[in-house]
């Protein structure tokens, strides 16, 4: 019997920062509106020519350094992204080349903002079956490339970035209580139109732009996330009060706070990076995790819950002990 243990965490943000002030010169908006409705103050934007695979690779290198492993030790790369460098090959393949990894397999997972939760659950299943030994699970996005920069309803919300973890197969004895303890994944395709990109290879042969009915997405978010969190905690025979850190998808401070209230998790146990990162889609959970890790507050043996909701609609939660 195997456990998938998180042994390394890393994040990367592009240098350029776009503030609410900057945005107010581009569209009819202001800092007060954005701050009050979302909690976002600034976001990072990838430089010209800086690709999703670059952000993912930089985050992966940090996670590998943190785990003390090299390219030869990695045999699985799963990249969660909705903004791949190209239609194909998978961004994970490009990251594999950039890292110099030549073993095992690499592929992408597409569940938009829930992508990292889905990718981590996928990697956990492969490792638990003994099929791979050490995975890089990456969330990397350049949403700035699919934003309609004239749409004030969406352009203020998103940012670019990458985050990664190293997930290692260990025997139950080696893991000694650490590892992924469960995941709950859901999709309801009836809501595909609430949040989508209006282009693609098969439909328009264009890249398209992000379109969202924000207030309707908001209505689904709190209940659906809470349901996933309760399920994953129940199935692991734990209580919500056992959670040391809640690391949510960083879409909106109001959603974060409402979920916390709904679940009764104290605010000081919730990691919030939305003010400085904006919504980085699949990168947001590993980026928030890497901020927590960098702060030195995350301790070995602590129980971490990650959750997300995004296009699809897809949503889910996963639980691991560090
Ligand atoms: N600046 C000023 N006014 C704005 C802006 C802006 N940037 N954007 C919209 N408005 C206006 C609208 O035009 C509207 O004006 P009207 O009343 O004259 O028509 C008014 O503000 C209210 O618009 P709503 O969309 O109803 O505002 P709401 O309170 O719902 O806030 C927001 C909008 C922040 C998008 C909110 O709905 C939200 O956060 N939804 C969740 C979306 C989300 O998090 N999606 C991501 C999750 S999934 C993923 O990560 C891919």
Layout: helices, strands, pairs:
Elements: E1 2-12, E2 16-19, H1 20-24, H2 31-38, E3 42-45, H3 52-67, E4 76-80, H4 91-99, E5 105-109, H5 115-128, E6 134-142, H6 152-155, E7 160-171, H7 172-175, E8 179-187, E9 195-197, E10 210-212, H8 214-235, E11 245-248, H9 253-263, H10 274-277, H11 284-295, E12 303-310, E13 314-321
Parallel strand pairs: 4-5, 4-6, 11-12
Antiparallel strand pairs: 1-7, 2-3, 6-7, 8-13, 9-10, 12-13
Acetyl coenzyme *A is lined by residues 29, 33-34, 37-38, 112-113, 152-153, 156, 195, 212, 214-215, 217-218, 251-252, 279, 281, 309-311.
Molecular structure report:
With 322 residues, this protein is an alpha/beta fold. It has helices at 20-24, 31-38, 52-67, 91-99, 115-128, 152-155, 172-175, 214-235, 253-263, 274-277, 284-295; strands at residues 2-12, 16-19, 42-45, 76-80, 105-109, 134-142, 160-171, 179-187, 195-197, 210-212, 245-248, 303-310, 314-321. It is built from eleven helices and 13 strands. The strands form four sheets. Strands 1-7-6-4-5 form a five-stranded mixed β-sheet, sandwiched between helices. Helix 3 (52-67) packs across helix 4 and helix 8 (214-235) packs parallel to helix 9 (253-263). Residues 29, 33-34, 37-38, 112-113, 152-153, 156, 195, 212, 214-215, 217-218, 251-252, 279, 281, 309-311 line the site of acetyl coenzyme *A. It catalyses: malonyl-[ACP] + acetyl-CoA + H(+) = 3-oxobutanoyl-[ACP] + CO2 + CoA.
């Amino acid at each position: 019997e195997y456990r998938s243990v998180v042994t390394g965490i890393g994040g990367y943000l592009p240098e350029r920062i776009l503030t609410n002030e900057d945005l107010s010169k581009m569209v009819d908006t202001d800092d007060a509106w954005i701050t009050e409705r979302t909690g976002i103050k600034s976001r990072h934007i990838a430089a010209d020519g800086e690709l999703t695979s670059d952000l993912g690779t930089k985050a992966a290198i940090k996670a590998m350094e943190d785990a003390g492993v090299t390219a030869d030790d990695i045999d699985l790369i799963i990249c969660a992204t909705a903004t791949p460098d190209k239609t194909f090959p998978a961004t994970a393949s490009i990251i594999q080349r950039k890292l110099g990894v030549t073993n095992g397999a690499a592929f992408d997972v597409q569940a938009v903002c829930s992508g990292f939760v889905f990718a981590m659950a996928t990697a956990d299943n492969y490792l638990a079956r003994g099929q791979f030994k050490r995975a890089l699970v990456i969330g990397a996005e350049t949403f700035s490339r699919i934003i309609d920069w004239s749409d004030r309803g969406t352009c203020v919300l998103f940012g670019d970035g990458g985050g990664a973890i190293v997930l290692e197969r260990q025997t139950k004895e080696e893991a000694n209580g650490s590892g992924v303890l469960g995941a709950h994944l859901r999709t309801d395709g009836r809501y595909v139109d609430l949040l989508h990109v209006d282009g693609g290879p098969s439909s328009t042969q264009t890249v398209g732009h992000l379109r969202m009915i924000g207030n309707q997405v908001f209505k689904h978010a709190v209940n659906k996330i809470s349901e996933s969190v309760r399920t994953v905690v129940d199935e692991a025979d734990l209580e919500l009060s056992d959670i040391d850190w809640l690391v949510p998808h960083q879409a909106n401070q109001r959603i974060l706070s409402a979920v916390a209230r709904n679940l009764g998790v104290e605010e000081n146990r919730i990691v919030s990076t939305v003010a400085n990162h904006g919504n980085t889609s699949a990168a947001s959970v590993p980026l928030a995790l890497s901020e927590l890790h960098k702060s030195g507050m995350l301790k070995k043996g602590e129980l971490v819950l990650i959750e997300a909701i995004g296009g699809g609609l897809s949503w889910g939660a996963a639980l691991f002990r560090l």
